[in-house]
Amino acid sequence: MTADDPDEFRRVPGYLRGQLGVVVAECGERPLPVGHGAREVFRDPEPVLTVRFDGGQLFGETGTGTHVHADLWLTNLEEVGAP
Which of 48 and 35 is assigned the larger pLDDT? Predict the structure, then answer.
């Protein structure tokens, strides 16, 4: 997950920015909504992927043994090499 803090609202929870996750499913292509309210616009469709994050990495001890799944647009992801 990219750590960038975009100038525009991108529907990415702050606690996921910069975190390492695993793509577990493809959800097809969807228009990318940018902005909010009356100023919301939709960009060209792009792939949406379900990404699994380790709850312990996100929330510390209270998240140990859990996972968080998030459907995210490809634009918001950053590929990393295998460990």
Answer: 48
Tell me the pTM.
0.80
Q: Which residue has the tokens 């390492």?
A: 20
Query: pLDDT, tens digit, for every residue of 1-36?
Result: 555 555 555 678 889 989 999 999 999 999 888 777
Give 43-50 contacts, CB < 8 A, sequence gap 24+.
46/73, 46/74, 46/75, 47/73, 47/74, 48/72, 48/73, 48/74, 49/23, 49/25, 49/74, 49/77, 50/23, 50/24, 50/25, 50/26
Question: Which amino acid, 63?
Answer: G
